[in-house]
């Protein structure tokens, strides 16, 4: 986390170095966000004939944005919210399982800017869509896989720093409000929880 804080300090310095106006209306961008899922329930255990590594805590998103207006941007994203893996050995039977939750979301970001927007742009937004949970298990005796989609929304807030005509860096925090899966995915039915991430964006 110290390295991430250092990155943000550098971004703040770069973002505030030049406050000249840069227009984004009508432009598009692709981006990557990388961060931490705060409800991952991370655990790792090793026992006789049993190895478990669950809930990575990592979250990431690939997203596309289009500025409909200077202070309003459309947002489409495909991400990774949570994952787990487990290996079990019971007598002659060896089994493995892996699971993941993938959000596919659409929404908007509203930027709180002046008439002459500078390079520092705080925003609030909301996205909604489907969260796709998948789990696969295999052993010597059985192979199974399941997938299920549920609805969810994610209110969020953050800040962007426009570093030039083609690059933006920033940070955001959001909360995933997700309905329950019918069956357990990775040992859980609900993956509601907060996340914090850094944003890296290319404008075109």
From TrEMBL:
Classification via Pfam families: OMP_b-brl
Endpoints of the signal sequence: 1-19
Ranges where the Outer membrane protein beta-barrel domain occurs: 9-204
The entry's keywords: Signal
Domain of life: Bacteria
UniProt-recorded name of the protein: Outer membrane protein beta-barrel domain-containing protein
Native organism: Melioribacter roseus (strain DSM 23840 / JCM 17771 / VKM B-2668 / P3M-2)
